[in-house]
Design brief:
The complex is a heterodimer of chains A (237) and B (113).
Chain A: E1 5-12, H1 15-31, E2 34-39, H2 46-57, E3 63-68, H3 73-82, E4 85-89, H4 99-109, E5 116-120, E6 137-143, H5 150-153, H6 155-159, E7 163-167, H7 179-189, E8 194-197, H8 206-222, H9 230-234
Parallel strand pairs in A: 2-5, 2-6, 3-4, 3-5, 6-7, 7-8
Chain B: H1 3-20, E1 26-34, H2 41-52, E2 61-67, E3 70-73, E4 79-81, E5 97-101, E6 105-112
Helix pairs in contact in B: 1-2
The chains are: A alpha/beta (237), B alpha+beta (113).
The structure holds guanosine-5'-triphosphate (GTP), magnesium ion and zinc ion (ZN).
Magnesium ion is lined by residues 46-47, 71, 75 of chain A.
């Protein structure tokens, strides 16, 4: 019988996913669809925020929402009622979405004619920060009740996001959440992060966020190249 | 937290490599795990038996090489070992430092025939 030998592999576990993400990004660029990877803890107000975002933008953009299957289909229905195409992704119970799962979900339904697609990632601040989904931009929601110390506890998540949404600002009077301190902590981890403070419930601060989305869609459609994002810059290699 | 999913991907990858190299028996799988990779070695060990069941790696041993954190200071150009969560430069206290080792999670090699 043959002797045992060493077969060198020396490949990052993240390499395959990164390559697949880059490929998906390129194909979505060709389609003119801006994919946003939305990450947060459970209950941060994603569905409420998405519903309002869709209502504000649906006359100008055609929108789709891709949901990770851990959420109930109550969310998918709410999103559809607000006027967006809702798509269910299959994570098989995983704690994060990979580029492969994202591509599979997109292939099933197609995104033809969609300007803006929002990927509702699995609800936690750890695992999704490790896997590039192929989104053009990465956005996280931090809601006021969660506390302003989250950048210290989940540094990778704050590093890989292009945008931080500080949500539920309507309850700021009832919590000791220090917005300035939170902004400073996030900027220290990721100097180029853009931060919007808003409330999905009252709509306060929403126009800055929806304007950013509109601008980003325009930029994505007209840019010559895919360009990079915070995930590509600071994510796992 | 996602060690299970990562291992499943690794097993797929190894089965591919095994096919390419016409390997039928894998004695050891060696992974390099950086201290700052976000991957928890104990979880890898705990998940491993479940993931390899019914695969070519069913009898394979898992070997983990833990890689210590090392950083480079862009201000004073020195390299230093990272201690705990302290990532400031120990020489000049700069925060302008970059992790150069210890962030990796790499399939190093397999011992097979
Ligand atoms: N005060 C306040 N409450 C909010 C706001 N947005 C959402 N909520 C409340 O927070 C709770 C969770 O909101 P959802 O929009 O369902 O949050 P989610 O992130 O989609 O939750 P999961 O899908 O279960 O993870 C609900 O009780 C909402 O009414 C907000 O801006 N202000
Ligand atoms: Mg929801
Ligand atoms: Zn220094």
């Amino acid at each position: 019988m043959d002797k045992f030998r060493v077969i060198e592999i020396k490949e990052s576990v993240f390499a395959d996913n990164n390559a697949e993400a880059a490929e998906l990004r390129l194909s979505l660029k060709k389609k003119g669809t801006l994919l946003i990877n939305l990450m947060s803890s459970p209950g941060s107000g994603k569905t409420t925020l998405l519903k309002r975002t869709i209502a504000d933008l649906k006359d100008e953009l055609s929108i789709a929402v891709l949901e990770a299957d851990i959420d109930s289909d109550v969310d998918a229905r709410a999103v559809a009622e607000a006027g967006a195409k809702a798509i269910q992704l299959h994570t098989g119970g995983m704690c994060h979405l990979t580029a492969g799962m994202t591509r599979q979900g997109i292939e099933e339904v197609g995104l033809d004619g969609i300007d803006l697609a929002v990927l509702e990632n699995v609800g936690n601040l750890v695992c999704p920060a490790e896997f590039d989904t192929g989104a053009a931009k990465n956005v996280m929601i931090l809601s006021v009740p969660e506390g302003d110390d989250k950048p210290l506890k989940y540094p990778l998540m704050f590093s890989v996001c292009d945008v931080l949404l500080i949500n539920k600002t309507d309850v700021l009077p009832y919590f000791d959440f220090d917005v300035d301190a939170c902004v400073e902590r996030a900027k220290k981890l990721n100097p180029s992060i853009e931060i919007f403070t808003l409330s999905g419930r009252t709509g306060e601060g929403f126009s800055a966020w929806t304007n950013w989305l509109k601008e980003s869609v325009k930029e994505w459609k007209t840019a010559e190249r895919v360009g990079d994002n915070a995930f590509v810059r600071y994510g796992r290699k | 937290m996602h060690e299970l999913g990562l291992l499943a991907e690794i097993v797929d990858k190894i089965e591919e490599v095994a096919k390419e190299n016409k390997v039928t028996e894998i004695e050891t799988l060696v992974l390099d795990v950086g201290e700052y990779s976000g991957v928890v070695p104990v979880y890898l060990e705990e998940c491993f038996p479940a993931v390899i069941e019914g695969t070519l790696l069913e009898k394979t041993k898992l070997q983990l090489n833990i890689i210590k954190g090392k950083a480079f200071c862009h201000d004073c150009k020195k390299t230093f070992m990272i201690a705990g969560n302290e990532q400031n430069c120990p020489y000049c206290n700069s925060q302008n430092c970059e992790v150069i080792e210890g962030g990796e999670f790499v399939i190093k090699e397999i011992v097979a025939r």
